[in-house]
Write a structure and sequence with these properties.
The chain is an alpha+beta fold. The protein contains 9 helices and 21 strands. About 45% of the residues are buried.
């Protein structure tokens, strides 16, 4: 397929941030964007089509391919899959939203490291269903929008959330499960402008952020969490997961912030929570790996993001040859860090305790490059979703273990909800 790809340097976009570029896209034009200033590479789809599930899922996972002609770009053109939490496991409950699949045939890609921008395209891009005008015109500098008022209302009161945590702690003490991730939801009735959401992305975006704005779907993800990536090295194919557990807020007071980071690094509760999920991911990856091919590369290192500090682990497996992405998803989805352990039991409890379907919340967003072979994915945490013309939802959760205290879990959830609740102006 490399012969179809054309990538040209676009010097007029060199040095621009993702938010500079997205602000130039007209509000009536479709938006399909992956990345942030924390990401090594970001991509804005300029021409793309919606396609069926099989085109994405039934292809063999092949990992990265070296290509000097691509100037080292892992992202050029390819496929994007938006998978719901309940797409691949019956214990999650009834699928409440359709998984969506897109093929990108023209894109603007830029590197946060080199500050270079590229226009990538392949033959026939002008026939795609969705089009963003190119060249993208600079926004008028004199246009300023008044602050928008967005009223997020929680579907649970604090008392109801604390009661759900207490029920979960009772289940843990009785031996029903070891850890469960519960979500709390917020809703806004009314439209939210693209400019408002871009401002929040600029402030809180994690390395796996995304922004989808289509007539029948809106999704803004501030996610800091990689689900899995698939890559090749030394003629072997690997899959690598990076589960996240443990949370402390970022403080503007440097002394207090350093104390919060030290507290997280030394927290027995948070370390235990992460170790349980690392063990779960080892078991999940073993279904896909060669015998003895799974190892823990990092049992937990502190990483800082715009809003929070987290502990992040790394688990790697050597993949069996010939696996399709469909088989990978069936073995791994939904992710262990947003379910709990043992996985099957807690998925059933989650469905009954949250009293709703999760849909896109805690699902996955995948990118598969058609030319470099690059495959990466995120878990849709810190995500807001619009499925109607004027109704949005946001979800935040925490992992509950036997060492949890209900009030501390409440504070963790509220910290994660600052992304939408805090005034960005």
């Amino acid at each position: 397929m490399e012969s179809q790809l054309n990538c040209e340097r676009v010097e007029s976009f060199d040095g621009l941030s993702p938010w500079d570029v997205l602000a130039r896209v007209q509000t009536h034009e479709p938006l399909l964007f992956l990345g942030s200033e924390q990401s090594p590479y970001s991509m804005l789809a300029l021409s793309f089509d919606e396609e069926g599930r099989d085109e994405f899922m039934l292809e063999e996972a092949r990992g990265t391919v070296d290509s000097k002609r691509l100037d080292g770009l892992p992202m050029t053109l390819g496929q994007i899959a938006l998978l719901t939490y309940d797409a691949y496991n019956p214990w999650c409950g009834r699928a409440s939203a359709p998984s969506r699949f897109f093929r990108v045939t023209r894109s603007l890609v830029w590197s946060s490291l080199t500050k270079k921008a590229y226009l990538c395209s392949e033959h026939g891009f002008e026939k795609a269903q969705y089009q963003v005008q190119w060249p993208i015109r600079a926004a008028a500098s004199h246009v300023t929008l008044p602050p928008q008022s967005v009223d997020w209302k929680s579907t649970w009161t604090d008392s109801q959330y604390l009661e759900a945590v207490a029920q979960s702690l009772e289940d843990i003490r009785e031996g029903r499960f070891y850890q469960i991730n519960l979500l709390r939801y917020w809703q806004h009735q009314g439209d939210i402008s693209r400019a408002y959401l871009l401002r929040r992305l600029k402030k809180f975006a994690g390395p796996f952020s995304a922004f989808i704005d289509l007539p029948d779907l809106g999704l803004v993800s501030w996610s800091p969490e990689r689900f899995v990536r698939i890559f090749s090295a030394e003629e072997k194919l690997f899959i690598e997961a990076e589960p996240i557990k443990g949370t402390r807020p970022v403080s503007s007071d440097k002394v207090h912030d350093a104390a919060l980071m030290e507290e997280l690094k030394n927290s027995a509760k948070d370390k235990a929570e992460l170790h349980m999920i690392v063990d779960l991911m080892r078991n999940d990856l073993q279904r896909l790996a060669v015998r003895g091919g799974v190892s823990v590369l990092d049992s937990g290192t502190l990483h800082s993001f715009p809003n929070v500090h987290h502990l992040v682990a790394t688990v790697r497996g050597e993949l069996k040859p010939g696996l399709r992405l469909d088989e990978v998803c069936r073995a791994l989805c939904p992710g262990g860090s947003i379910t709990g352990a043992p996985k099957r039991e807690v998925m059933d409890v989650i469905h009954s305790r949250e009293e709703r379907e999760r849909g896109y919340f805690m699902g996955n967003l995948w990118y598969k490059d058609a030319y470099s072979g690059h495959i990466d994915s995120s878990i849709l945490i810190r995500t807001a979703v619009r499925q109607s013309t004027a109704s949005w939802e946001y979800a935040a959760g925490s992992g509950i273990t036997v060492k949890s205290h209900a009030y501390e879990e409440l504070q963790e959830v509220l910290t994660k909800a600052r992304i939408v609740l805090e005034n960005p102006w």
